[in-house]
Design brief:
It is built from three helices and four strands; from the N terminus they run E-H-E-E-H-H-E. It is an alpha+beta fold.
Protein backbone atom coordinates (compact mmCIF):
# COMPACT_ATOMS: atom_id res chain seq x y z
CA UNK A 1 0.00 0.00 0.00
CA UNK A 2 1.16 3.51 -0.69
CA UNK A 3 2.46 5.43 2.30
CA UNK A 4 0.59 8.52 1.15
CA UNK A 5 -2.67 6.97 2.30
CA UNK A 6 -4.15 8.24 5.54
CA UNK A 7 -3.65 6.54 8.85
CA UNK A 8 -6.79 5.97 10.88
CA UNK A 9 -7.20 5.05 14.52
CA UNK A 10 -10.11 2.69 15.03
CA UNK A 11 -11.75 1.88 18.34
CA UNK A 12 -13.80 -1.30 18.37
CA UNK A 13 -15.82 -2.76 21.23
CA UNK A 14 -16.68 -6.34 22.10
CA UNK A 15 -20.35 -7.13 21.48
CA UNK A 16 -22.78 -9.44 23.33
CA UNK A 17 -21.46 -12.70 21.79
CA UNK A 18 -18.02 -12.02 23.33
CA UNK A 19 -17.43 -14.22 26.39
CA UNK A 20 -15.15 -12.34 28.80
CA UNK A 21 -14.43 -15.58 30.68
CA UNK A 22 -12.60 -16.98 27.64
CA UNK A 23 -9.27 -16.01 26.08
CA UNK A 24 -9.34 -14.41 22.62
CA UNK A 25 -8.25 -17.61 20.90
CA UNK A 26 -11.20 -19.46 22.50
CA UNK A 27 -13.87 -17.04 21.27
CA UNK A 28 -16.42 -18.15 18.67
CA UNK A 29 -14.97 -17.80 15.15
CA UNK A 30 -11.42 -17.05 16.32
CA UNK A 31 -9.65 -18.88 13.43
CA UNK A 32 -11.64 -16.91 10.83
CA UNK A 33 -11.11 -13.58 12.61
CA UNK A 34 -7.38 -14.27 13.05
CA UNK A 35 -7.05 -15.18 9.36
CA UNK A 36 -8.86 -11.95 8.38
CA UNK A 37 -6.55 -9.86 10.58
CA UNK A 38 -3.42 -11.66 9.34
CA UNK A 39 -4.44 -11.00 5.75
CA UNK A 40 -5.25 -7.37 6.56
CA UNK A 41 -1.76 -6.94 7.98
CA UNK A 42 -0.14 -8.75 5.02
CA UNK A 43 -1.95 -6.40 2.63
CA UNK A 44 -0.62 -3.39 4.56
CA UNK A 45 -4.06 -2.27 5.72
CA UNK A 46 -3.92 -2.99 9.44
CA UNK A 47 -0.64 -1.72 10.85
CA UNK A 48 -1.24 -2.26 14.59
CA UNK A 49 -4.03 -3.98 16.51
CA UNK A 50 -4.78 -5.25 19.97
CA UNK A 51 -7.07 -5.16 23.00
CA UNK A 52 -6.95 -2.15 25.31
CA UNK A 53 -6.37 -3.90 28.61
CA UNK A 54 -9.62 -4.91 30.28
CA UNK A 55 -11.72 -2.08 28.81
CA UNK A 56 -13.62 -4.31 26.38
CA UNK A 57 -12.22 -2.22 23.54
CA UNK A 58 -9.69 -2.85 20.80
CA UNK A 59 -7.38 -0.35 19.09
CA UNK A 60 -6.42 -0.63 15.43
CA UNK A 61 -4.21 1.59 13.30
CA UNK A 62 -5.28 1.23 9.69
CA UNK A 63 -3.91 2.69 6.47
CA UNK A 64 -6.60 3.52 3.90
CA UNK A 65 -7.77 6.05 1.35
CA UNK A 66 -10.83 7.14 3.33
CA UNK A 67 -12.83 6.44 6.48
CA UNK A 68 -15.44 4.68 4.33
CA UNK A 69 -12.76 2.26 3.07
CA UNK A 70 -11.85 1.39 6.66
CA UNK A 71 -15.51 0.76 7.53
CA UNK A 72 -16.02 -1.38 4.41
CA UNK A 73 -12.92 -3.41 5.15
CA UNK A 74 -13.89 -4.04 8.78
CA UNK A 75 -17.41 -5.04 7.68
CA UNK A 76 -15.76 -8.10 6.09
CA UNK A 77 -14.30 -9.24 9.44
CA UNK A 78 -16.09 -12.41 10.62
CA UNK A 79 -16.20 -10.94 14.13
CA UNK A 80 -18.02 -7.87 12.79
CA UNK A 81 -20.51 -10.11 11.02
CA UNK A 82 -21.14 -12.19 14.16
CA UNK A 83 -21.42 -9.16 16.44
CA UNK A 84 -18.30 -10.02 18.46
CA UNK A 85 -16.84 -6.63 17.50
CA UNK A 86 -18.52 -3.36 16.65
CA UNK A 87 -16.79 -0.22 15.44
CA UNK A 88 -17.14 2.70 17.84
CA UNK A 89 -14.95 5.28 16.14
CA UNK A 90 -12.80 5.76 13.04
CA UNK A 91 -10.68 8.93 13.04
CA UNK A 92 -7.80 10.14 10.87
CA UNK A 93 -4.49 10.09 12.73
CA UNK A 94 -1.71 12.57 12.03
CA UNK A 95 1.27 10.53 13.21
CA UNK A 96 4.04 12.95 14.21
CA UNK A 97 6.60 10.69 15.84
CA UNK A 98 7.59 7.15 14.94
CA UNK A 99 6.57 4.95 12.04
CA UNK A 100 3.97 2.25 11.52
CA UNK A 101 5.27 1.24 8.11
Amino acid sequence: MAHDQTLFVVIRRYGPPYDSTKALQHQLGWPEHAAFMDESEALGKTRLAGPLGTTGEVLLVVRAEAESAVASHLAEDPWTQSGLLTTVKIVPWDLRLGDVG
